[in-house]
Specification:
Structural class: alpha/beta
Distance between the termini: 70 Å
Number of helices: 15
Strand content: 5-15%
Number of strands: 7
Helix content: 55-70%
Oligomer: single chain
Number of domains: 3
C-alpha cells in the first residue's frame, strides 16, 4: 500500500495544475499516461524489486536449497498482486486528469495511453525479476539508479531513444500526434519485456542454470537494437491543418479549427498592441496560432507571419510587440559603417522602450518625454527604418 500511495501522490502532484485548465488537449492528456512514468515507474520498479528480495531471501523456509519451487504459478501470483496495486494506483491518479479533459480539444489517443500502462507493467515486472534473480537488498538501489539513468538518457538523447525510453523528451502539441509506428513499437516492446521479465523471474525461482536465463532477454534486446538502428518518427503533424480566420485592422488572424472558440480571444489580446502602434506594423501581416506550424512551412507563406501560443491554461503568449518594435532587428542586420556601436545600443534601447509601450502603454526610458501621439507619429515615419536597423542617431525618438 505504501508504494501505491506514493505513486498516487506524485502523479497527482505533477498533474494537479492541469486539472483547472480551461482548454485541455486530449493529445497532452493521452501523453501523460507515459510522461508521468518518471517517478511512478521508478517507485514501482524499486518497490517490486524490494518485494522480491524480501520474498526470495535465502533464509526463507520456502527458499531452502531442497524446498520445492513453484516457478511460473508463484511468479504470476506475485506479479498480479504487484501490478494491481502499482498500476492500479497509477490509473487512479490519472483519472481526475481524464475527467477534466472530457470536454477538451481533440480526441483521446488509446495507443499512447496503452503504451504508458504497459511501461508501468514492464517496470514492475522487471524490478520483480531482478529482485528474484539476485535476492539481495543491494539490488534495490541498483534498480533505482538504472531506472533513473534510463529516464535521463531518454531526456537528453531526444529522438535517438524515444522508441525505447518510457518518457518522451517532449509533450505533443495541438496539430501533432505520436506516430503510429512509434506507438506500435513501444506497445510491442513493453509487452515483450513484461513477458520476458516474468519468464526470467519464474526460471530464476527454479534455479535454472544462469546462462539459460540470458535467453529471456534476447528478444527485448533485439527489439531495442532494431529501434536504435532504424528509429521511427516521434511526432507526426498535419501537412495542411484545418484553420479558421478573421481580419481586423488589416491583420489576418488564423487559428487551428480546434481552437475556434479562442479566435476572438486572440484578437482581443493582440489588438491593443496594434492600437498603440497607431497603424498596421509593416512587418506583421498575419498572426497565426502556433499549432498551425507544427509542420514546417515555406518561407514565402511565413513572410509577415507572427506566431501566438494559445496555451491550454488559457494564457496567450506572443512576441508581437517585440517584433513590431524591431527589438531584434539590429541583431540580424549588417553592421553599419555610419553608425557606431554606441549608437546601435541606443537604437536597441529605444526599440526595447517601444516594446514596453506597445505591451503596457507605459512611456518610459527614451520615450518618457513623449506622448502616445508623438510615438505613433514617429512610428508612422520611421517604422521601415526601425525594422531594418537603418536609423541614424538624429532620427531616434527624442
Amino acid at each position: 500500500m505504501a508504494p501505491a500511495l506514493a505513486i498516487i501522490i506524485v502523479v497527482l502532484g505533477m498533474t494537479w495544475s492541469m486539472l483547472g485548465w480551461p482548454y485541455p488537449l486530449w493529445v497532452q492528456t493521452s501523453a501523460q499516461f507515459h510522461q508521468q512514468f518518471t517517478w511512478a515507474g521508478l517507485i514501482a520498479a524499486t518497490s517490486a524489486c524490494w518485494y522480491a528480495t524480501v520474498l526470495h531471501a535465502k533464509d526463507r523456509i520456502w527458499a531452502q536449497p531442497h524446498a520445492p519451487r513453484l516457478g511460473t504459478p508463484a511468479a504470476v501470483r506475485h506479479l498480479i498482486t504487484l501490478v494491481c496495486w502499482f498500476v492500479g494506483a497509477y490509473l487512479v491518479a490519472l483519472l481526475p486528469l481524464v475527467v477534466s479533459t472530457m470536454d477538451g480539444i481533440g480526441t483521446p489517443d488509446p495507443l499512447a495511453m496503452l503504451s504508458g500502462v504497459l511501461a508501468m507493467i514492464a517496470a514492475t515486472t522487471l524490478g520483480y525479476a531482478l529482485g528474484t534473480l539476485i535476492p539481495s537488498a543491494v539490488m534495490v538501489p541498483l534498480v533505482a539508479v538504472g531506472c533513473y539513468a534510463l529516464l535521463v538518457a531518454g531526456g537528453t538523447q531526444g529522438e535517438r531513444l524515444a522508441a525505447v525510453a518510457p518518457v518522451l523528451y517532449l509533450d505533443p502539441e495541438l496539430g501533432q500526434h505520436e506516430s503510429l509506428p512509434l506507438l506500435m513499437f513501444r506497445v510491442a516492446l513493453f509487452a515483450v519485456l513484461t513477458v520476458a521479465a516474468a519468464g526470467l523471474a519464474a526460471r530464476a525461482m527454479t534455479r535454472t542454470q544462469p546462462w539459460r536465463l540470458v535467453v529471456y532477454l534476447a528478444v527485448p534486446a533485439a527489439l531495442v537494437a532494431a529501434a536504435l538502428v532504424r528509429r521511427p518518427a516521434v511526432f507526426v503533424a498535419d501537412a495542411h491543418p484545418p484553420t479558421t480566420c478573421t481580419e481586423q485592422r488589416g491583420i489576418r488572424y488564423c487559428v487551428h479549427v480546434e481552437n475556434r472558440p479562442r479566435l476572438a480571444e486572440l484578437v482581443r489580446s493582440t489588438d491593443p498592441v496594434i492600437v498603440r502602434f497607431g497603424t498596421k506594423p509593416a512587418n506583421i501581416d498575419q498572426i497565426w496560432d502556433q499549432s498551425l506550424t507544427a509542420q514546417p512551412i515555406d518561407a514565402e507563406r511565413a513572410r509577415g507571419v507572427e506566431l501566438a501560443w494559445l496555451e491550454p491554461d488559457g494564457t496567450i503568449q506572443s512576441d508581437i510587440a517585440t517584433t513590431a518594435a524591431g527589438v531584434y532587428a539590429c541583431a540580424f542586420a549588417e553592421p553599419s559603417p555610419i553608425r557606431s556601436e554606441e549608437d546601435t545600443e541606443r537604437l536597441t534601447q529605444a526599440a526595447i522602450d517601444l516594446s514596453e509601450y506597445l505591451t503596457t502603454g507605459a512611456l518610459t526610458g527614451t520615450l518618457s518625454t513623449l506622448s502616445a501621439r508623438d510615438v505613433q507619429r514617429w512610428l508612422a515615419r520611421h517604422q521601415d527604418q526601425l525594422h531594418a536597423c537603418t536609423l541614424t542617431p538624429d532620427q531616434l525618438p527624442r
